[in-house]
Design a protein that fits this description.
Number of helices: 6
Strand content: under 5%
Helix content: over 70%
Oligomer: single chain
Number of domains: 1
Radius of gyration: 19 Å
Order of helices and strands: HHHHHH
């Protein structure tokens, strides 16, 4: 069962389907009827719904990547904060070696974050192709 299938509402409609329906309404019905600032705000709202949908789908993969990096780089007491926050503090304090494994984690994390925030961002595709060749 996929992450999307697991997250249904009481009526067995997936969260992704609900988000898609609202986004579709905004883009197909509301947006053409609006102009100026209202049209811009409707487009922003539709984009936010897309981000939420992608976060629902890719968030668990990102969390697993962060947890694995924290476990590998930060043995012992996890301390306060999220895994990325703890890793950032440890890197700033020079408690983590900025080696190839850590850079690989950062690359993979950035690709996932970009896939959530803006999958069509041109630099994401360039980075993905380059980093794939580097591996």
């Amino acid at each position: 069962m996929s992450q999307d299938e697991a997250q249904t509402t009481a009526s067995d409609v997936t969260i992704s389907e609900l988000l898609g329906a609202v986004k579709g309404f905004l883009m197909d019905s509301a947006l053409p009827a609006l102009s100026g600032r209202d049209q811009f705000n409707a487009r922003v709202a539709a984009n936010v719904l897309g981000i939420i949908d992608r976060e629902q789908q890719l968030g668990p993969e990102l969390a697993a990547l962060d947890a694995a990096a924290a476990q590998q780089c930060l043995p012992g007491d996890p301390g306060p904060g999220t895994a990325p926050q703890r890793l950032s503090r440890a890197l700033a304090a020079r408690e983590i070696d900025a080696d190839s494994h850590f850079f690989e984690y950062l690359k993979q994390r950035q690709l996932l974050v970009a896939a959530i925030n803006n999958p069509r961002y041109a630099s994401r595709k360039v980075a993905e192709e380059k980093w794939r060749d580097d591996s």
